[in-house]
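Entry 14. Structure prediction run on the chain below.
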Amino acid sequence: MKFVLDAMGGDNAPNAAIKGALLALNITDDVEIILIGNEDAIKNEFVGTIPSRISIHHVTQNIDMHDSGAKVIKAKPDSAIVKGIRLVKDGLADGFISAGHTGAVMTAATLLLGRIPYVKRPALTAYIPSENGGKVICDVGANPDAKPEHLLQFAIMASHYLEYVEKQKHPKIGLINIGEESSKGNELYKKANQLLSAELPNFYGNVEGRHLLDSEANVLICDGFVGNTILKFGEGWMNIFYNSIKKGISESLRYKIGGFLIKPIFNNIKKKYDFEEHGGTPLLGVNGIAIVCHGASGPKSFLNSILLAKKSIDNKLIDYTKRELAAHLEVFK
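Output returned:
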């Protein structure tokens, strides 16, 4: 398989993407990588000969976070994101991976690769580690305004990603809401509850914010505004919590001794909830593999994103998604 890796996207570009690609080549022998970006910047990161399974595709434009994601195809056609996704569209690569401008990846993938039949809106998913095997939350930013049928599609796509790629059999779907009762929430969430109840036998029901991590639901569904807010809050809270513990331990010798004794426990917890351990997630609903990574991704995250792209193809994620969406065609007409 051949994957395009956006070498210029993310806070640690191009070093992190290149090191992640090298790690992937050491783990699997059936993957080739196209590093797309500024050729000189990419070559400067290599010490010695570039491996034969890595090629460089030079582009002349760069997308930064101030660019409008909706306009990148026309404004910056020779950027890593646009050119990289075109390579997938033209059959020259099997998937695209980027830690760059999420809106640009979303727009370029939707317009160039097209949508899976019956998909009204592609969605972004985030993988969340938990005590009972991990969960996904969808949508986390692509669709701040949504309709009940959109939430149904998010539920179908995300649950099949969790089942066929992450290998969690028979996942339960929960609708994020302000209360467990089906009558709670605004009109969108009341109607979505009714629709998911009628269409999905694995619908668990509403899930309140305090039970997102410990409920039986493996797939958590919401509109993009709610999902992005939850995701950003979680990231910020974890950083504050971890830094507060470190600061507290440093304040006295007694705490330092205790901190030394329990350090392995904290390291294991930090590793478990580290986004790099999983990598990115597929942009669901587009007719091709496009993996969206965290902007702060390091080499480990890029490695795991490459392996995730491979798993998505090996496990026929798009084919299964097409089949399941077709089973609910009457709702999506």
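The mean pLDDT is 89.
Filed with the rest of this week's runs.
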